Amino acid sequence: MAIIQKHGKSSSPDLVSHKENLPPDKIGAPGCHKKWPEAHSNWPRPVARVWTVVLLLGTCLLYCARVAMPICSVSMAEKFNWTKRESGMVLGSFFWGYCFTQVFGGYVSDRVGGEKVLLLSAAAWGSMTAFTPILAHLCSQPIVSMTLARFLMGLLQGVHYPSLASLCSQKVVESERGFLMSTVGSGSYLGTLVIGGVGSLMLDLYGWESVFYVSGLLSVLWAYCIWKYLLKGEGPIITLESLGNGGTQSKLTKRHWARLLKQPAVCAVIVTHLCTASTFFTLLSWLPTFFKDTFPDAKGWVFNVIPWLVAIPSSLFSGCLSDHLICQGFNTTSVRKLMQFFSMGVSSVFTVLLCGNTSFSWAVAFVSATMGLTTFSHSGVSLNVQDLAPSCAGALFGVMNTCGAFSGVLMVYFSGYLIEATGSWASMFALITTVNIMGLFTFLAFAEARRVDIDFSRVRHHSIHI
Fold first, then answer.
1. Three-state DSSP class for 304?
2. Are 327 and 408 in contact (CB under 8 A)?
3. Which in 78, 297, 366, 446 has the greatest CB count within 10 A?
4. Half-sphere exposure of 159 toward its Cβ, with a 13 Å CA cutoff?
5. What is the signed CA dihedral for 319, 446, 271, 62, rounded to 10 degrees?
6. Residue 6: exposed, middle, or buried by beta-carbon count in 10 A (0-12, 13-18, 19+)?
């Protein structure tokens, strides 16, 4: 009965009409089979495990290349006589580029395959990272070349997560998506730790150029290994013909996109992801300053490392838990809401505790709990977009991430204004808690896990006619 109630609604305003005849679901363990067939066949489990490890490593290298500039910015500022304002302009240019290719990357991934977009983009941003020191030394105005280089890095890396969402929706069954996305998502924390530790050591021993060379060349090597061993060295990765004939994926018209974005469940994932990204960017940007201002004698490696060490196993656990609950027969919508409740609701409890007077040890514990629980969103709202619209999951995730990136930049600036105006860090933590609660209530009220990109009425009519 639960399956009938979940997928048998005739009143839903669905969007894409599939011409093929869709067979009914087979009887079996609820949640442990793919409910709606796609044009792309799923990976067998051994292949999915290989891709999980490969994508984890790729995301780790993505963050190594991304964080290389912040790690080296002080040394580069001394070398090229940059002011604080100029250093901030170089660092901030990445995020403006990052916003502009999210939707495009997802759209192309939906049509030609996310693995191909990941390969090409990694080769491009890896090369850009490796050439960064050369550009800095050759250009007569290093501030100009580095600002443009960071902007291009943002453009090239902006396609990564939408491509992952598209690839996962096309190749991974519903009951295994949580593990893959949470594992791959933990690569961001692993990359931050690796470049923070190894990169800092290389910076001291071999100079700032070595950080860019090593992280860039390793990224290019990763892309080559995917092409050689996983894609079997096939010919042109993306052709104009493949873009024009992308199969059934991502063929939504403007009218269909307008109707899709009017769906309450779709609006809910966009708003919730916006809130999640905003609070995460704010914490990421301001926590080091919070610890330095509040606990000036504290060792930096403690509060810069421990929260990320907690986040990695927490992300893996959330993925395993969500997949287990779905395989046990729990409703997918309920599982997504539970994961998001931990991510935004329970984490807010620890954020509120930071508003009071705490010792350094308790502050580190509260921040670690907050960051660890935040990773549960990898199995919540981040996966829900694949439940709603797997045929255009990449493009829709791009819309979500674009909104999240823009709102994140604005909230970081607004938090700085609040801290300066009130003279208290409690105002920032109160703002984060408020935004989290708003996003959580939106998700709990409107989130669903049914597909909204298929015209079920036409499918049923076609089946009856046959």
1. helix
2. no
3. 366
4. 26
5. 20
6. middle
Residue 37's pLDDT is 40
Tell me what the pLDDT averaged over the chain comes to.
84
Residue 229 CB-density burial (10 A; 0-12 exposed, 13-18 middle, 19+ buried): exposed
Nearest to 98 by CA among 401, 323, 368: 401
Q: Write out the DSSP string of 417-454.
A: HHHHHHS-THHHHHHHHHHHHHHHHHHHHH---S--SS
pTM score, whole prediction: 0.79
3-state secondary structure of 18: coil
Please state, in angstroms and rounded to a whole number, the distance separating the CA atoms of residues 294 and 297.
9
DSSP-based three-state secondary structure for 324: helix
CB 15 within 8 A of CB 253: no
Q: Tokens in use for 455? A: 């015209």
Q: Hunting for tokens 């690839």 — which residue is that?
A: 167
Tokens of 420: 């300066």
CA distances from 437 to 139, 411, 432 (A): 48, 15, 9
